[in-house]
Amino acid sequence: MLTPLHIIFYLFATVAVCSAVAVITVRNPVRSVLSLVVTFFAMAGIWMLLHAEFLSLILLLVYVGAVMTLFLFVVMMLSIDRESVRSGFVRYLPFGIIVVLIITGLTIAAVGPENFCLTQMPAPAPE
């Protein structure tokens, strides 16, 4: 049964995942930084749902307020030569795919619930 709290969580989680994917797929660096800001806002909303108000506000004040503003100004002031950045992409693509597959396999092997004894943990107490 979906409660309104579940719906809000799934909404924030969807926004966070979509904007995180946009951070690495968008070609414009300014839009990438703005997508990261949206990701931070969605994560702050999830932390509010978890009753971690201090962490949520620190995320908004410190990261969005200061660090992302700095990133945005640096990205806007840089003169990035796009052709030199793209020239080595095809050359290193096979190596990158191999590294991603190795890291993904290691992560799946390490994060399984049996490795952290999560299958034997008791259910959390109701609020």
Structure in a nutshell:
By secondary structure, the chain is an all-alpha fold. It has five helices and no strands. α1 runs antiparallel to α2 and α2 packs antiparallel against α3.
Index terms:
127 residues; mainly alpha; 76% helix; 0% strand
Description:
This protein has 127 residues and is mainly α. It has five helices and no strands. It has helices spanning 4-25, 29-49, 53-77, 82-87, 89-110. Helix 1 packs antiparallel against helix 2 (29-49) and helix 2 packs antiparallel against helix 3 (53-77). The chain is flat, with a radius of gyration of 19 Å. The mean pLDDT is 84.
Secondary structure elements and their pairing?
Blueprint: H1 4-25, H2 29-49, H3 53-77, H4 82-87, H5 89-110
> Could you state the order of secondary-structure elements as H and E?
HHHHH
Query: How many DSSP-defined strands?
Result: 0
Gross geometry: flat
Uncertain regions: pLDDT < 50 for 5+ in a row?
Answer: none
The secondary-structure class comes to mainly alpha
Instruction: Count every helix, treating DSSP H or I runs of 4 or more residues as helices.
Output: 5
Rg over alpha carbons: 19 Å
| Helix content, binned percent | over 70%
Biggest sheet features: none
Strand content: under 5%
Mean pLDDT: 84
User: Could you give the distance between the termini?
Assistant: 18 Å
